[in-house]
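Throughout this review, each integer encodes one residue's backbone shape. One record appears below.

===
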Amino acid sequence: RFDLQPGHNDALHVNMFLARNWFQIPNTFDQSTQDQRQKAVTFNLAPGYQHTFSTSTLLTINPYIRQDNVHYYPSPDISDDNPLTVSQNRRLTNFGFKADVAYVQGKHNVKFGTQLMGTRLSEQFGLGITAFDFNAVCLDRAGNAVAAPTITNPNNCARAGFQPNPDLQSGLLPLDLTRGGSLFQFNATDTIKEYAGYVQDSITLGNLTLSPGLRITRYDGLSQATGVQPRFGLAYLIKGTNTVLRAAYSRTLETPHNENLLLSSFTGAAGLTDVFGAVGQNPLPAGRRNQFNVGFQQAISRFVQVDADYWWKFTVNAAEFDVLLNTPITFPIMWRKDKLDGFGIRISTVNVHGFSANSTLTHGRLRYFGPETGGLIFNQPLANVFRTDSDDPFNQTTSVRYQWRRNGPWATLTWKYDRGQVAGVGSLQDMFGLTGAQQAAGGFFCGSQFATPDNPITACPSGNLGTTRLRLPANDEEANDDTNPGRVASRSLIDVGFGTDNLFMVESGKRTVLRFTILNVTNKAAMFNFLSTFGGTHFVAPRTYQGSFGFVF
């Protein structure tokens, strides 16, 4: 960052950012030869100018340009990829400027301005099926996939002594490299434009604060929309009890995410509707959301403070992401609508003789309603209400800290508990349809036999089946995507930390920072999510030791 003040009333600054990352994609146990990689290069240039007209009026102008360039590389030998080989070269260039005027006078603190944005998209994508059983044409008498590389018509299965696969997606056959298909190739460019004007005010009337505002946005992307977005909030201080009551309402225009937007919207005749089973026939539309918030802040004596908030959101055309199997490649999608609500409570203390503590408790109920528009999906589209993997009945984080003297060493203890997010499998019966590696990840067992990557469990005559890392209904009759979804098992994690923010206890000037942290002290094996449509499968990291050493000047 560079700053320049040419005069008393003017200020210039420039923010610059450049980053690059390169990493291998983690493999599951049944992908031992796969070597897919991703490289991302990002730069950001954001100059700014401020001019002070008077003690009550300030002009701010911020132009910017940012680019993300993402390369996804298949294995050097694409036959090592399983079950798909994937390649991508995606560039997203975001540019525009924001200008506003802030004015303070009496009870009012007003800001009005405009924002103009453009996003240049360039997307290249390739995909092919490398596993014969991913979309088998024929099954044997036991229901197992058979290679039969020359059979591409299910009507010919019986002639070869097999039976047709009832779940065959015929649109994928042209991409099946094990049956003479070829790679799907996509290449497109476009520019998404967005224009907005806004005005907001903060009005102080004694103990009451009002926050009205209005934003009007025009979205010109693959679809078009205009959003009139009023916002209004209020907060009232009850001095006698040190209580703050607050409430707010906002209506917003929810535009589609830009990453892989062109590919995700490429539906209809000869597009992804026919090839991948994507549901939408049109470019992703913008959504309209109504959001309500109510909350309070309460001081309890002079040591404890409670801050609580309840939120409720309702969206028509609800934006989300679809993830391609267990890769980091995501695609924007839209659901017909969503209903989201939850609460958050934070309890914190002041420093009492070096001790302080805080606890955050949250609950979230995230209900989405099909059908889906856009995306790359390889399963039947959900038409009914369901919960996403961010739906969490209860989550809490409690931290206790002790610091010796004002600038002495400190120690922290953190306890995290999660009731369990929604899993990508509905019941124990559904576990039989997974691969051995997927069953092993979920801790699937039948009696004393546990699934392994090489030995999946295909039946359990004793009926004594279960999972160690998931909490699933027994069968499809008990399962319900809305009221009784499968979830990952609840987990408790403990972290501890030690350190000092002033190693040599200097009174002022430069200081030295030293920290040491142990994450997941008990080395608990647990999952964040499992086969999530939106995030894949992720495990909690094993016991991890971290250390840092730094200088502050």
Notes: Helices lie at 261-265, 272-275, 436-442. Residues 268-273 have pLDDT under 50 and may be disordered. The longest strand covers residues 84-105. Residues 429-471 form one domain.
